[in-house]
Amino acid sequence: xxLTLMYITNNPTIAEIAQTAGxxxxxxxxxxxxxxxxxxxxxxVKSSHTVADIRKIRPVVTNAELLVRVNPIHEATxxxxxxxxxxxxxxxxxxxxxxxxxxxxxxEVARFLKAVNGRTKTVLLVETAEAVENIDDxxxxxxxxxVHIGLNDLHLAYKMKFMFQLLCEGTVQRLCEKxxxxxxxxxxxxxxxxGLGMLPAEHIITEHYHLGSTAAILSRGFCDANRVADPVTVxxxxxxxxxxxxLKEAEVSALTEQQYQENLEIIREKVGRIxxxx
Length: 278
Description:
42% of the residues are buried. By secondary structure, the chain is an alpha/beta fold. Helix 11 (201-211) links the parallel strand 8 and strand 9. The chain has a single domain, classed as Phosphoenolpyruvate-binding domains (TIM Barrel). The chain has helices at residues 12-21, 35-39, 51-57, 83-93, 106-116, 129-133, 135-139, 151-157, 165-168, 171-182, 201-211, 231-252, 257-277; strands spanning 4-8, 25-29, 65-69, 97-100, 121-126, 146-149, 185-188, 190-191, 215-218. Helix 1 (12-21) packs parallel to helix 12 (231-252) and helix 11 (201-211) packs across helix 12. 47% of the residues lie in helices and 14% in strands. It contains 13 helices and 9 strands. It is globular, with a radius of gyration of 18 Å.
């Protein structure tokens, strides 16, 4: 089964390009609470999307699903609405899928699921150490459609230097085994373009298939549409990039366990070099 590919944008032109190229989910990212404190000074994506962006992009997203990441569970303030109202507005604006980030407890997830009340698909973003510790209790809740492991914040929670260390020391595998046992779809992290970078995407794609993952985010290393101004260039990047991912998936889907283990050793070796160089 092909990976569900997701891309973060609030630009209707980029959204149309991405879905035409075969991206499965366009991601509007409204999360801002606590993000600067966690990731301040890091070269990470910090979006400032709003409910208005959902409405703006909804008419364009016709062949893909529209996913919205809301804020962590929170109460209303003088300047912003609380979780329940945020979910209500997100659904009213047209979200197909809603993602909850930075949860820690079963009670937080239960509150989120109650607010959604089956009106959209739900995705839990596992990115805290407490969520990992409580995952068995959390997975007992009805109404969880998918889980995604957020490598960026989770590696910070464990005070690691590089997010793909979580693949090397077994945390991702242990979580995936729990999700699989519960019959819940799951994915992890993001991927860039095939053949690029110190840790090329083909090795990560192979590990997705090894672990039974069904979803991945297309990272800025795949295409940073904020820096590539020409829509024609963006379109070419997406068409070629998605095609190469699909070709690589077809290639690695039938590997043997020994071949998957050999790929994991390559990942460990490359991650070790990256960490040593930081």
